[in-house]
Specification:
alpha+beta, 17% strand, 4 domains, 6-stranded mixed barrel, 51% helix
Length: 805
C-alpha cells in the first residue's frame, strides 16, 4: 500500500512539475526563514547556560532620579551584604574589559579582555580550569589566571603554571589556565585581582565598581534588594545631609530617589535594564521581530500550500471517486494525502537546509554571529516544524478531498461545484493581507531609517577621525597626572597639525558612538540638574561644525576660558529656564563657572534617546585631562588615504605598543542605530520573499480558476465577447480580494509600526502615502499575474472546448 501511495505521489509530481515546484519551493522558503530565526533564538537564549550558578548569580544596578541605570555601585553596600544571611559571595569588579599587552620573556601578546575582580570571581563564574586551580588563581594581587587561547599564544606547549608574566606594568604569577565558555556574559582572556588598591582610593565613591552577588536562595532576593535600596535612600542621604548642613528632607529632594535593581545572570542577556556585563545585551525586540516575521512567512507558505492542494484536488477528483468505488474508505484517502504532505514537507526541509547552509555565512555577517546548524535542540525543533506543517497543511486538504461525493465526481460535474471555493478565496485574502503588511511596513521602516540617516545631527562628523590614545601606566603615576597627560596630548596635537592633509586637531571627553550616557551634577540657583558635563579642548566646536547660537565658544585667546568659563547647549538653557543665560553662574564639580555661550543642540546618543542638557568646559578649568583617551582629527578632502597613511607613520613613533586604529565619526554614530538598519534590511528581504510566495499562490490559483472556466470563456468568445471584456471578467474577483486583504491589514500595520516608532526620540509620523504606494504596488502585481494568465486564456481555440457540446 505504501509503495502504491509513493508511486501515485511521484506520478502527480512528474505531471504537475510547475505547481509541484511552487509547492516545494514556497514551503522551503518559509521553513528556511524559520530555521534562521531558530538559530538566532537558540543562540541568544543559550547565554550563560554553561554556568550552573546562573540562577544564583545577580548583578546590582542602580538608578537615580533623572539619570540612566548604572551598572556601577558604591562600596558602602558591602557591610549590609556581609550581614545578609542569604548572600554567599560578594564580588566587586573594576570597569570591565581593559586592554594591555602581556609579556613573557621575549614574547608579547596584545589582550583586549582583561578584568580586575575580587577573589571569589570563580565561585560565580566557574570556568573549566585546565591547569592550576580556581582557589589560588586570585588569592592575592600578584596572581593571575589566563584563558587557554592566551596560554597557547604566549607559552605554546610549555606549562604556564608558576611562570612570571608582565601585564599592566606589574609582574604576575600564572596560577590557573581556564577554558573560555561560549555564549557567556563575561568571557575574559585574563582575570586578575588588583582591587585592594582601587577600593582604598575609591572608598566613598557613589558609582564606582561593578557588584556581583551569589545568593543561597533566589526566592529571598527581594529582601536583599530592599536593604540595598534603603542604604542609598536613607543612610547615604542622611550622611550627605550632615556633611552639607541640610535637613534629610531637603537633601533627599536635592539628590533624588535611588532605585536598586538586582538582576539574575540567567536573564541578563535579553532582559537587563542596562548594559551591565562586558559582552553586552542582546536585542530582544529584534529577536522577537525576526521570529514573529519568520513564523508569519511560514504560515503564509502553509496557506499557499493548502490553497494549491485544494485547487489541485479538482484534477484528482475522478481518482478519488474511482478509489471510493473500489472500496477505499475516507480514512484511507486521508492517510494517502497526509503521506503526500509528509513527502512534500521532507523535500521542502531538505531544500530549506540547502538554502540555509549556502546563505548562513551572509546571515552570520548580518548578525555578527557564528551560528551553525547543529544541536539536539535544533533537530527537535526541526521535527516539530514537520509535524506542525503536516497537521495544518496536510489534514485540511486531505479531509477536503476525502469528502468528495463519488457520484458527482464520476459524472464529471465536480468542476462546477462551489465546494472549497470560499476556503481558497479566504486564504487568498489572507495572503493579500500579509503581503500588504510587509509592503507597507517595509516602506515605513525605510522612511524612518532614511530620516535618521539624513537628519541634521547638529554636528558634522564626515572627514573627522577618532584615534585611540594609549598612554603607558607610568604616565598616570606622577604627581600631576592631569598636567602630564595634557602635555603629552598637546605634543601629539602639534605633530598631527604638521601633517599636510590635517585640517584641525582637538579632543573632548565625549564619544559619538551613541552609548556614552555618563551624567554629572550641575547646581544652578540651589537646584540640582543631572546632565552631561563634558571637558573639551579648544577648537572642538569649530571642527565638528557645532553652531554657537548665543555668546561665543571656548577660545584660547581668553585666559578665563581655562579658569571659570562654561558653554551650554539649548536643552540645558531650556531645562534651567534661562531667558538670558550669558553671564549666569553654575556650580560644576564644586567650581563656580560663568556661562559664555550657548551651542545648538546636537545628539551624542542613539536615536532612541532625546538630546540631554550639556555643559562644556576646558580640561584645565576642572582638571579632567587624565581621562583623555581619544584625539579627533579633521582631514582635508583631498588625498584622505595619503593623510591617514602619514598619520599612521607618525603613530608608529607615538605609540609603538598598540596597532594604529581609527574610526570616522559619522560612521561611528551610524552604528548607534545599526540594529534598526538591520531591521530595515530584514524587513526589505522578507518583503521580497512574502511577495514571491503570495505571487506563487496567486499564479497557481488564478491558473486553476481560469482553467475551470475555459468552457465558459469559449462560449463567451463564440457569442462575440471582446478580449477586454473577458480580461475584466476574469480579473475582477482578484481585484476585490486584493482590496479586502488591504483593508484588513490597515489596523495591524498602523498599530504595530507605531509601536516600533516609539523606540525613537526622533521619528517620522505615519502618513497616508505608504498605504497608497503599498496598495498600488500590490494591485499592480496582482493584475500583472492575473491578466497575464487571463490573456493567455482568451487566445485559446474555442473548438477545443466546444467540440463535444
Amino acid at each position: 500500500m505504501l509503495k502504491n501511495y509513493i508511486k501515485i505521489f511521484i506520478y502527480h509530481l512528474n505531471h504537475n512539475k510547475l505547481f509541484s515546484f511552487l509547492n516545494v519551493f514556497g514551503l522551503a522558503i518559509g521553513i528556511a526563514g524559520l530555521i534562521f530565526s531558530l538559530l538566532y533564538w537558540n543562540d541568544e537564549q543559550s547565554y550563560n547556560d554553561w554556568n550552573p550558578e546562573k540562577d544564583k548569580v545577580y548583578q546590582v544596578l542602580v538608578q537615580l532620579t533623572g539619570m540612566p541605570v548604572f551598572s556601577d555601585c558604591s562600596l558602602f553596600l558591602r557591610p549590609v551584604l556581609a550581614k545578609d544571611p542569604n548572600v554567599e559571595n560578594v564580588v566587586y569588579a573594576d570597569s570591565w574589559y581593559q586592554k594591555d599587552k602581556i609579556v613573557y620573556k621575549d614574547k608579547k601578546v596584545l589582550v583586549e579582555k582583561i578584568i580586575n575582580v575580587e577573589t571569589d570571581f570563580f565561585a560565580l563564574f566557574p570556568f573549566k580550569i585546565i591547569k592550576g586551580d580556581a582557589i589560588s588563581a586570585l588569592k592575592d594581587d600578584s596572581s593571575i589566571a589566563i584563558s587557554d587561547a592566551i596560554a597557547k599564544r604566549l607559552f605554546g606547549e610549555e606549562n604556564p603554571i608558576g611562570k612570571q608574566i608582565t601585564c599592566l606594568d606589574q609582574m604576575f604569577v600564572v596560577r590557573a589556565v581556564y577554558q573560555t565558555p561560549t555564549n557567556s556574559s563575561i568571557a575574559p582572556d585574563v582575570v586578575m585581582n588588583k582591587m585592594k588598591e582601587l577600593i582604598r582610593d575609591n572608598a566613598t565613591g557613589l558609582f564606582i565598581f561593578k557588584l556581583l552577588l551569589k545568593v543561597k536562595d533566589p526566592s529571598k532576593i527581594e529582601t536583599t534588594r530592599a536593604s540595598l535600596e534603603q542604604v542609598y535612600n536613607i543612610d547615604f542621604i542622611k550622611r550627605e545631609a550632615q556633611q552639607e548642613g541640610f535637613t534629610f528632607e531637603d537633601m533627599a529632594n536635592k539628590i533624588g530617589h535611588f532605585e536598586v535593581f538586582i538582576e539574575p545572570l540567567s536573564k541578563a542577556r535579553l532582559h537587563s535594564v542596562a548594559d551591565g556585563y562586558p559582552e553586552g545585551r542582546g536585542n530582544y525586540q529584534f529577536l522577537l521581530i525576526m521570529v514573529g516575521l519568520s513564523v508569519l512567512i511560514l504560515i503564509l507558505s502553509i496557506v499557499n500550500y493548502i490553497n494549491l492542494a485544494t485547487a489541485n484536488a479538482v484534477k484528482r477528483a475522478k481518482e478519488v471517486g474511482v478509489r471510493k468505488v473500489v472500496g477505499a474508505s475516507k480514512s484511507t484517502i486521508v492517510i494517502q494525502f497526509i503521506l503526500e504532505t509528509v513527502l512534500i514537507s521532507l523535500l521542502s526541509i531538505l531544500l530549506a537546509l540547502v538554502i540555509v547552509e549556502i546563505t548562513l555565512p551572509y546571515y552570520n555577517d548580518f548578525l555578527n554571529k557564528s551560528l551553525r546548524i547543529m544541536g539536539s535542540q535544533f533537530y527537535l525543533q526541526l521535527i516539530l516544524i514537520v509535524v506542525l506543517i503536516v497537521l495544518f497543511a496536510g489534514i485540511l486538504p486531505a479531509i477536503y478531498v476525502a469528502n468528495f461525493e463519488t457520484l458527482k465526481v464520476l459524472k464529471g460535474n465536480f468542476s462546477r461545484s462551489k465546494s472549497g471555493i470560499w476556503l481558497r478565496n479566504g486564504m487568498l485574502i489572507f495572503q493579500f493581507t500579509i503581503a500588504t503588511f510587509f509592503i507597507v511596513g517595509s516602506y515605513i521602516v525605510y522612511q524612518q531609517i532614511d530620516y535618521l540617516s539624513n537628519k541634521d545631527l547638529g554636528f558634522k562628523g564626515d572627514q573627522v577621525i577618532a584615534i585611540n590614545l594609549n598612554f603607558p601606566k607610568s604616565d598616570y603615576e606622577v604627581a600631576n597626572v592631569g598636567q602630564n597627560i595634557y602635555k603629552k596630548y598637546s605634543t601629539i596635537k602639534q605633530e598631527l597639525s604638521k601633517i599636510k592633509g590635517v585640517d584641525q586637531v582637538s579632543t573632548g571627553l565625549l564619544s559619538f558612538d551613541g552609548f556614552d550616557n555618563s551624567l554629572g551634577g550641575v547646581l544652578y540657583n540651589d537646584e540640582l540638574f543631572k546632565e552631561r558635563t563634558i571637558a573639551v579642548d579648544f577648537g572642538l566646536f569649530e571642527m565638528m561644525k557645532i553652531e554657537v547660537v548665543q555668546g561665543r565658544s571656548l577660545n584660547q585667546k581668553y585666559a578665563s576660558d581655562t579658569i571659570n568659563s562654561v558653554v551650554i547647549n539649548e536643552k540645558a538653557q531650556k531645562l534651567m529656564d534661562m531667558k538670558e543665560p550669558i553671564g549666569k553662574e553654575l556650580i560644576i564639580k564644586q567650581r563656580k563657572l560663568k556661562i559664555i555661550g550657548v551651542v545648538k543642540d546636537f545628539n551624542l546618543l542613539s536615536p532612541e534617546a532625546d538630546v540631554s542638557g550639556m555643559y562644556f568646559y576646558h580640561f584645565k578649568t576642572v582638571d579632567m585631562a587624565q581621562n583623555i583617551g581619544t584625539v579627533f582629527v579633521k582631514l582635508k578632502s583631498d588625498n584622505i588615504e595619503n593623510t591617514i597613511a602619514d598619520i599612521e607613520k607618525l603613530w608608529a613613533k607615538v605609540d609603538s605598543e598598540y596597532p594604529f586604529k581609527y574610526d570616522f565619526i559619522d560612521k561611528q554614530y551610524a552604528r548607534s542605530y545599526e540594529s534598526y538598519v538591520k531591521q530595515k534590511n530584514l524587513f526589505s528581504l522578507l518583503n521580497v520573499v512574502v511577495i514571491l510566495i503570495a505571487l506563487f499562490g496567486l499564479f497557481a490559483l488564478a491558473s486553476y480558476s481560469i482553467q475551470r472556466r475555459m468552457k465558459e470563456i469559449a462560449i463567451r468568445k463564440t457569442l462575440g465577447a471582446e478580449t477586454n471584456f473577458l480580461l475584466i471578467e476574469l480579473s475582477k474577483q482578484y481585484i476585490l480580494y486584493c482590496i479586502i486583504g488591504f483593508l484588513i491589514a490597515l489596523f495591524p500595520i498602523y498599530y504595530l509600526l507605531n509601536r516600533w516608532l516609539e523606540n525613537f526620540a526622533y521619528r517620522i509620523e505615519i502618513s497616508i502615502y505608504p498605504f497608497i504606494i503599498g496598495f498600488a504596488a500590490l494591485l499592480s502585481l496582482t493584475l500583472l499575474v492575473v491578466l497575464s494568465r487571463a490573456y493567455q486564456a482568451t487566445k485559446v481555440d474555442v473548438l477545443k472546448y466546444l467540440k463535444y457540446e
